[in-house]
Specification:
5-stranded parallel β-sheet, Jelly Rolls, 328 residues, 6-stranded antiparallel β-sheet, Rossmann fold, 2 domains, 25% helix, 14 strands
Length: 328
C-alpha cells in the first residue's frame, strides 16, 4: 500500500476554513450567524469542491468519510458517486458509502489533469489520497472564478455534480470555480456580497433572483436597491475584475404571477437587467447575460430547475461571456 497523501493541496473550491464538523463550508465562519438558516444549510453541502490531480498514476484511491446517505434532489440515480473527469469526458465513477470508505478511480490514458467530483450531498470529508501505478501531484493553479447564486448555480437538478453548469464551464475554461450557490436562499444578502468581495478572483458571476419572487418575496423596488448595493460592495473588492450578471432563467409559474408584494419574476428580471444596464456605461468590465431565453420550459423537469440539457445550455452562454471577458 502506498503512503497516503495529504488531500489539502489537491482540493479546490474550498475557499473557507472548516466550521465545527463541516470540513468544506461555503460561507466564512463568522457569517454562519449573519445569514439565514437556509443559507447555512445549503452552505454545508460542498457544492463545487473537488480534487484536481496530475502526474503519471494510473488510478487513485480516495479515502473519505461521508456524513449522510441522503440522496438529495438528484434522487438515488445520481450524485452519490465519486467521478473522475478530464475536460469533457467521464473517465470513471465509483459509488460512495455512508461513513468511512475508500474509492479507487481509474485515471485513464489522459493528455492532462483529472478532476474528481465528490458525492457532495453526502457531505464527504477527504481523508487521504493513495496513488496507484505512479505518482500524483496537485493540479496546476488556475484563475479563480467566484460564482454567487441560488440552487441553479448549486447544481439542481443536474443528474450529477459534474454536469452542473458551473462545473462544465470550469472544466472547459480551466478555471478554479468557488461555488457560492445556495439552494432556497441567495437573495443578495450583504454578508454574501462581502464574502464575494473578500475573495481573490479573476472573474465573478452573479446569478440570483428567482428566490426573491418566492419564500421571502421582494418588490421590484427592493430588488433594485438590493442588487445595486450588492454590486457596489462587490466592486469595492473587485473594482476592475470582469463581473458577469446572469439574470434569472424562466420559471413558468412565476413569470406573470404577482407575489404578495406585486412583483412577477418577469418584472424582477427586468429590474435586475435595468440596474446592470444603468451601471455598464461607467463600468466597462460589467457584462449582462439575459437569462429568460437560456433554458426552455421542456428543460425544466420540476418547472424551476434545469435538467442536464438545461445546465449545458446555461454553460454555453455563460461560458462564452466568461471567455470573452477574460480574453487578452
Amino acid at each position: 500500500m502506498a503512503e497516503q497523501l495529504d488531500p489539502g493541496p489537491f482540493l479546490r473550491g474550498n475557499a473557507f476554513d472548516a466550521v465545527d464538523d463541516i470540513p468544506y463550508p461555503r460561507v466564512p465562519a463568522f457569517d454562519r450567524f449573519r445569514l439565514t438558516p437556509l443559507t447555512w444549510q445549503a452552505a454545508t453541502v460542498p457544492a463545487g469542491v473537488r480534487l484536481e490531480l496530475d502526474g503519471d498514476a494510473t488510478s487513485v484511491v480516495v479515502h473519505y468519510t461521508t456524513a449522510t446517505g441522503e440522496s438529495g434532489v438528484r434522487g438515488d440515480g445520481g450524485g452519490l458517486t465519486f467521478e473522475a473527469w478530464t475536460r469533457d469526458e467521464r473517465v470513471d465513477a465509483v459509488a460512495a458509502v455512508v461513513g468511512a470508505g475508500a474509492a479507487e478511480l481509474r485515471l485513464g490514458d489522459r493528455p492532462g489533469p483529472v478532476t474528481i467530483h465528490l458525492p457532495e450531498v453526502m457531505r464527504p470529508r477527504i481523508d487521504g489520497l493513495e496513488p496507484v501505478g505512479g505518482e500524483l501531484v496537485p493540479g496546476a493553479e488556475k484563475p479563480r472564478w467566484v460564482a454567487y447564486g441560488d440552487s441553479i448555480l448549486e447544481g439542481w437538478v443536474a443528474s450529477a455534480p459534474a454536469l452542473a453548469w458551473s462545473a462544465r464551464v470550469a472544466r472547459t475554461l480551466d478555471l478554479d470555480v468557488v461555488n457560492l450557490g445556495y439552494a432556497g436562499a441567495a437573495r443578495g444578502e450583504i454578508a454574501s456580497a462581502e464574502a464575494v468581495a473578500g475573495l481573490d478572483a479573476s472573474v465573478v458571476t452573479l446569478s440570483y433572483g428567482t428566490n426573491c419572487w418566492s419564500m421571502i418575496p421582494n418588490s421590484d423596488a427592493m430588488i433594485a436597491a438590493g442588487f445595486d448595493a450588492f454590486l457596489t460592495i462587490v466592486r469595492q473588492g473587485h473594482p476592475t475584475t470582469p463581473l458577469i450578471v446572469v439574470s434569472p432563467i424562466r420559471r413558468p409559474d412565476a413569470e406573470t404571477t404577482p407575489n404578495r408584494l406585486g412583483a412577477t419574476l418577469s418584472s424582477l428580471r427586468a429590474t435586475i437587467e435595468d440596474v446592470v444596464a444603468t451601471r455598464i456605461p461607467d463600468d466597462p468590465n460589467l457584462v449582462l447575460v439575459r437569462g429568460e431565453r437560456l433554458v426552455d420550459d421542456a428543460q425544466l423537469p420540476d418547472r424551476i430547475h434545469p435538467d442536464d440539457d438545461g445546465h449545458a445550455a446555461i454553460a454555453d452562454a455563460v461560458g462564452d461571456a466568461i471567455r470573452t471577458a477574460l480574453a487578452p
